[in-house]
Each structure stands twice: as C-alpha cells, then as structure tokens.
Amino acid sequence: MKHRIMVLGAGYAGAYAAGLLARRLHRDEVEITVVNAEPDFVERMRMHQLAAGQELRRHELTELFAGTGIGLLVARVEAVDAERRTVTVTGAAGTDRLEYDTLLYTLGSTAAQHDVPGVAEYAFHVAGRPSALRLRQHLDDLDGNGTVLVVGGNLTAIEAAPELAESRPGLRVTLATTGELGGWLGPSARSHLFRAFDRFGITVHEHTTVERVEQSYAVAADGTVLPADATVWAAGFAVHPVAAASGLTVEENGRIRVDRMMRSVSHPDVYAAGDSAFAIRDNGRPLPMSCASAGFTAMQAVAAIVGDLTGREAPETSLSYVGNHISLGRKDGIFQLVDAAERSKTWALRGRPAARVKAAILNAGPWSMRHPTYGRPTRKHHLADVPRQRNEEVAA
Ligand SMILES: Cc1cc2nc3c(=O)[nH]c(=O)nc-3n(C[C@H](O)[C@H](O)[C@H](O)COP(=O)(O)OP(=O)(O)OC[C@H]3O[C@@H](n4cnc5c(N)ncnc54)[C@H](O)[C@@H]3O)c2cc1C
C-alpha cells in the first residue's frame, strides 16, 4: 500500500510543497493528494488587482501538476480529525471523509474581522478570490463613482487603496487606520508613500479606529462618520477555524504550533506551512504571514516530510524575513529592506524600479509552482520502513 500524503490548500505554500514532494519521493511508494477549494492556483498577492477590475492570468492546478502524479481534489475542507487521521471534504460529489498517513496543512488565512459590528454584513475584503470578485462586482455596479473606504494601515490596505484609485479614477478613495499609515517604514519609503497617496488623491485618516460598519458609511471611535459606498476591510489576516477544531495544538490566534521543522508539536504526522503555521525563527520571533514565509515554511516542511519518511536527516532551511515589497498601483512601488534587528533601513528602493522588482516577485510565484526545484536537478528517495511501521503501530 502506498503512503498517503494529503496536502490541504494549494496556495503559495501548498501548491509549491506538493510539487516539491512529487519530485523528491517515488510515485510508486507515495500517493500525493491536494485538496483545494478552487481548481486554480490563485495568486492571492494580486487580489487587490482583481478587485480593481484587472484581468489576471489563470493557473489551472491540473496544468501546474501535469506529469507529477499529484492527485487534485477540488473540494472544501470542512474538518480535520488529527486523532483519527481523517479529513472531511465537501465537493461536487458531496461530503466525504478521507484518510491520510501524513498531512500537510496549508489552508492559508482570510481577512480578520476583529468582531467589529457590521464588518461581516457590509464590508468587502480582498483576502481571497471570491471576496475580491464580490468587491469588483459592487464597484462595477457603482459605475465608476462613489466613495471607497479602505480600513487598515498595513500592507494590504496600503496596496489596495492606490490600486483602486489608479484603476477606477472616478472613485473617491479614503483610508482609515488605527495607528499610522505604514508607520514601520523607513523615512524615505514613508514620504514616498504619502506622496503617492497624494498623487492618487487618497484621503488618509490616521489614529482613527473604525468601530462600526453600515451599508453606506462607517463610524469611528470618536463618532466621526466616514462615508463609504464600499468599505474594504483590510485590517489583518486570521486563519480558518478548521485547525483549532482539529485537535492539533494551536496558538490563541488559531495558527498551528509547529517545531523548527514545521511538524505539529502535538501530532508529528501533521505538518503545517504558510499563514496557518505559527513558526518561530531562529531569532525567537514568529514569521509574519507572507508569501516569502509561505515559501520558506513549505520548503522546510517538505524537507522534514522527506526526511521522516525516508529515514534521512532533514536539513534546516532558512526562515528569514528581509523586508517588504509594496505595490502602489502598477507603475510605482516601494521595496523596503530591514536590518538584522528587523528595523526598516533608512533607504528604500522607490518608484518604477521598485514596481519592476515587485512585478518580478509576483511572476516568480506561479513560475516556482511549475519549477519547484528552481531548475536544480533533484534525486528521488525511497521510503524507509520506519514511518510505515510507526503508522501501523499507531493505527493498531
Ligand atoms: C491583496 C493581498 C496582497 C498581498 N501582498 C503580499 C505581498 O506583497 N507580499 C507578501 O509576502 N505577501 C502578500 N500577501 C500575503 C500572502 O498572499 C499570503 O501570506 C500567502 O498567500 C500565504 O500563503 P498560503 O499558502 O499560506 O495561503 P494561500 O495562498 O491563501 O493559500 C491557501 C489555499 O487554501 C485554499 N483553502 C482555504 N480554505 C480552504 C478550505 N476550507 N478548503 C479547501 N481549500 C481551502 C485556498 O483556496 C488557497 O488556495 C498579500 C495578501 C493579499 C490578500
């Protein structure tokens, strides 16, 4: 019987990890199944572009996985039972319960609502394709006019506001944030950011906490009413509740607690990567939810899975955080690097050169799904008996 590896989620972490696993393990010894809600690899980093009305290239997972032997199941993961090693899914064929021997959990995250009244009912977000398309439709219905309020002062809000303003110049775009807009950026990046927002005509309300969202306005803590034909909630990410209900040990925020190798600390046959994993770097700080973190943690999880299944020592891969690449519409951007203490460097790459760097990074995502070894030759390894015996013992 083949060892069944199941990968939940085919985003930046899952699609990449599945492709890498298929190139490291023998097809006649392992069966790799990827479960994903959508038939495509969705470039989540472009969801503000999609909402703004731009057409994005599709990346069908069957095409990305062609020739690898990876099985794709387009279905929603409803539940994971880490004790019984089962995953409940709902797809075109109805609801099913699937068994696994090794699980890689990479379901990513969605918009954090922070229990603010009205957000669930009235606000839009760009954390996934269905929600971005919903916002796009609503903006189409506004016929190019109206006021859009973006709530948040961090990366997603910073990228969403200029994208909407550039692609839909008839809109009035405002942004409200509890703290400072891009307060962590170095001085040159921050002044560039404000110049860009001025150029786009975006009104910024700093130190403004939105406490309630209604259909056509939002209300701040000091009672200020902010008009909004569409409120775009971009105040951070939260992981899906599936992990917390699975029996796996999770952090307070629901992210799966993993060791240095991305193994669940409670269930060593479960690995997690990407936004769903609470991974600690060598400097003791958690990795931020980001595309780079998804790549690093996926690489580490694959090394650990291959090591654990083949009896080889798994190498530690780098878990670093070097900074942020930020788009300000299609022609402008900021590439802010951080120093060893993770403080923003005084200088940052800005303008068109930064936009070109960002475009290259975005294009590298789907490319790496097709070429997960980055063109380097790789050897496949045979499974050791050890993991199979361990599984049988646990199952007995
Ligand atoms: C608008 C926007 C811009 C961003 N810009 C940047 C940036 O510039 N730089 C950066 O580093 N990061 C950026 N990010 C963050 C980055 O996209 C995430 O950190 C990254 O996608 C995490 O990868 P992941 O594989 O963990 O999750 P995802 O890429 O979200 O993949 C998760 C996958 O799981 C699937 N899934 C989820 N739930 C279920 C379910 N119940 N059943 C089945 N399938 C499910 C999803 O459909 C998806 O395919 C941005 C995010 C957004 C929303």
Automatic annotation (TrEMBL):
Annotated region described as Disordered, given as residue ranges = 371-396
InterPro entries hit by this protein? FAD/NAD-bd_sf, FAD/NAD-binding_dom, NADH-Q_oxidoreductase
Q: Mention one GO biological process in which this protein takes part, according to its record.
A: aerobic electron transport chain
GO terms, molecular function: NAD(P)H dehydrogenase (quinone) activity
Q: Give the required cofactors.
A: FAD
Alphabetical keyword list: FAD, Flavoprotein, Oxidoreductase
Domain of life from the UniProt record? Bacteria
Annotated Basic and acidic residues bias: 383-396
Q: Which residues form the FAD/NAD(P)-binding domain?
A: 4-291
By sequence similarity, the record places it as follows: Belongs to the NADH dehydrogenase family.
Name listed for the protein in its UniProt record: FAD-dependent oxidoreductase
